[in-house]
């Protein structure tokens, strides 16, 4: 006769197996979705996030600029903090009304208004309000490196970049490749992304450091 202890252990094992199967099916379903659908789902379901990034840029002649690493956070619509930590410090923060770019080495802050142009910029894909199909033409690219890919082409002619490719894994953006108007290709890899965290009320408030030179751009 099976003891109560053995019945409980069997139930726990069956529960773990069912949970693993469910997670596997969810992962397979997300991977099966075309990348544009994964992007739309991400924009709709993920209203805020935190994570880490690494990026490097390759010039039109093949030269590579030094890699950068840092952390980011965002809250829709239009609030974000993109902070480079290595090899030098730099911060780009948007409070939804203005964008601040702080260079600690120069102790200088550049400030410009958040205008409608951000809707057709690469930042809109991660940080915008979700009107992606109005700003971009999206198409499916072949799977590569274990990711499903899309290409987003800006509908406007003054976006400042040619196209951006995004690779998704399990419904989350993992690799972004941007070709800008100068022929430079920037690769950004995202990791440790936490969906819908609780963020501090002043997470996207920027106060210029004392003595910093503040330059307002037109």
List keywords for this structure.
218 residues; globular; 4 helices; disordered N terminus; alpha+beta; outer membrane lipoprotein receptor (LolB), chain A
Walkthrough of the structure:
It is a single chain. The chain is of the alpha+beta class and 218 residues long. Helices cover 23% and strands 44% of the residues. It has 2 domains: 32 residues; 183 residues, outer membrane lipoprotein receptor (LolB), chain A. A 12-stranded mixed sheet has the order 7-8-9-10-11-1-2-3-4-5-6-12. The radius of gyration is 21 Å and the shape is globular. The N terminus is likely disordered.
Spatial strand order of the main sheet: 7-8-9-10-11-1-2-3-4-5-6-12
CATH architecture of the largest domain: Clam
CATH class of the largest domain: Mainly Beta
Class derived from helix and strand content = alpha+beta
In DSSP terms (H or I, runs of 4 or more residues), the helix count works out at 4
The termini sit apart by 82 Å
